[in-house]
Amino acid sequence: MKQTLWIKLTGTVLMTTLATSGATGKSGTTAKTSWGKTPDGEEVDLYTLTNKNGVEVAISTYGGAVVSLKVPDRNGKLADAVLGYDSLDGYVNDKSYFGAIIGRYGNRIGHARFTLDGKTYTLAKNNGENSLHGGIKGFNKAVWTAKETPSPDGQALELTYLSKDGEEGFPGNLHVRVIYTLTDSNELKIGYSATTDKKTVVNLTNHSYFNLAGAGSGDILGHILMIEADKFTPVDSGLIPTGELRDVAGTPFDFRKPTAIGARINADDEQIKLGGGYDHNFVLRRNPGDPISLAARVMEPKTGRVLEVWTDQPGVQFYTGNFLDGSAKGKGGLAYTKRSAFCLETQHFPDSPNQPKFPSVVLSPGERYHTTTIYKFSTEK
Ligand code: BGC
Question: What domains lie within the chain, and their CATH numbers?
Fold first, then answer.
């Protein structure tokens, strides 16, 4: 059964679709509000997806960003677990990639160049000598086309974007589709797909900054983290992988057993110093045959909130907000300071286009890039 209600709300037209399915018992709502215009005059909307438990995610068509994500603690109290801004302006001026879809290439490409079939492509250097997160105007600064889309799994929003041939230096017209689904099991599922008309490289992710005690509530050093990784990719001073896959055993990078994020974050360790904390790609252990595997689990002891990250990707960037300096005013005017959030960005390894031993990120015409990541929320006593 589908009902569409139009509600006039403080001058904005709000469309609410109430969908219920007798067969699955699935219920929830998706609401759309106008969120203003970019400096170029493009209209931006904010979609709010709510599930039957009252879990709520707001997604902006600007950057496809997860703007808020309200999840319960062990007593059922909701808090917003992601950093972000109250209004579109914040996202237009943002330099931290809060909540955004990252592309065409998540994380760094060394010397901002790569070679495909003998042709060298030069990208903008927006991080020292390197290219970071797709360049100067990556997918996080694009206005995506949104469509509510039926899904048996929950409330779903489809976002599409055409990244034109040559955009930020990358070859090929890349048609990108990202589907966010909020399920009644308190999962935010993200499906990424893309096709190209010229051989190119693709590595898409989401850059949500989590604080399971609530955005702006302090640092994340007491969160207990487990990462399903026996190895990580050490980096040089520009945070470009050296090419080595190093054992985590005996290092501050061993999160195979649940450990407080802060326990070793200031360790006298070359890699910790290079990252200013954790800012590294972990090589995920995958269960052969499973379409997707658990990558990481994080628990916040005061609230009992738990986040599990599931993915089909080979890596995850664990970043502890080392570059947050309190200068950006976040939601409710709060300053987000160093280590006030963590990111778990599922991905192919950084600099893969220049690292022949890393899993390939090349997409050719006729192929379809398709990956899935699930952020699943629950609680623990
Ligand atoms: C990178 C960090 C960077 C952050 C925000 C992470 O993916 O690894 O070095 O500061 O994104 O751009």
Answer: 2-100 (no CATH), 104-140+165-379 (2.70.98.10)
